[in-house]
Amino acid sequence: MNPQQSTAVLRGSKKTKSWGMLLALIGPGLMVMLADTDAGSVITAAQSGAEYKYLLVLPELLLIPILYLVQEMTARLGISTQRGHGALILQTFGKKWAVLSAGTLFIACIGALITEFAGVAGVGALVGFPSWLSIGAASLALIVLVLLGRYRRVEHVGIAVGALELLFIPAAFLAHPHLTQIAHSFVHPINTSSGYLLLLAANVGAVIMPWMIFYQQEAVIDKGRRGLDLKDALRSARLDTGFGAVLTQVVMLVVVIATAATLGTQHEGRALNNVGEIANAMTPFLGHRAATIFFGLGLLGASVVAALVVTLAGAWGISEVFGWRHSLNDLPSKAKGFYGLAIVGVLAGALLVITSPNIINLSVDVEVLNACILPIVLGFLLALERKALPPEHQMHGLRKYVTYLMVGICIVFGLITVVATVKGLF
Known about the structure:
Number of domains: 1
Strand content: under 5%
Oligomer: single chain
Helix content: over 70%
Distance between the termini: 82 Å
Order of helices and strands: HHHHHHHHHHHHHHHHHH
Number of strands: 0
CATH class: Mainly Alpha
CATH architecture: Up-down Bundle
Structural class: mainly alpha
């Protein structure tokens, strides 16, 4: 082998090794995105298709870049500063603002856990299990997984379970969607009714959730860089986040399409509050077995991985504010506060759903609540991006203004939702 060939082989080997290390860091973004398509998101997407057919197909696609830009900022903050979101707010803005941030996180996590366990209960009901059994089994599994510790183990299990969401995709094909109607919805995607706007806000709240920011920023720290320099670590995080953003919105999209092609055609305007209603309503179109498998198992995977991510995000964020040890790589005996918060969160969400069956019907309301909290969460995120990062890692030029525009639109939707919610109370 001549020197030129040796050099080429060496370069190829280095390039392959570099890509291997980049791919090894994929996980935090993918897992948080799988959790993003949780029980509440699926039910919100199903309601969108049943009530407004394909009108919300285009908004689901437009949310992909918004979701990516928000979570990429989160990962960049974590990798560059090596601090979680709560700890960074505490360091940059002080205790009062950190407590406010932790408070919004607590509210979002409680609402999310209620939704996730309601989804687990709904899946259990499809096969005849009482809610206490299905929720109890899921809670026990989550607690054991968290207590076993080690970030990589938790991530591998979470992604494997979350992959069940891919079962939603064949359901959309079996529903035989109307391509001409989908194309028409791209040309005329707007409906000015208050119900449509509120459901649109719920979809925004379903795609960008406060606990996602806390989770991914801490997860990229817990996972570590494994020999990559800062530049390559950021590249890996962007690849991870971009792939996850596309995947989660594809799942949301196929749920909208599947319900629009079936329920939206013959039962337009029908309310869908839980997985049982979705599966039962689609049985005449897909058959009982297909409806149960595709929507039941798909939602089970979404609910369990989301419950895991929400539990860890809440425990991470609150522990950071109080200065407690909070790594999954620490033994429970060395991070008692962190693990204690995680266990209490799981048990609280499970008990609320078991003892209050009517809470199952709050899925869309939880997503609206997320939209209401968005102005605070995204405001902190943008402020941290400008204040906590060195200039070379901040956004510049066109990307900066596009991000500000998209995040600003989300904040406006959040404020509109707050006003609409307050008006509805009086």
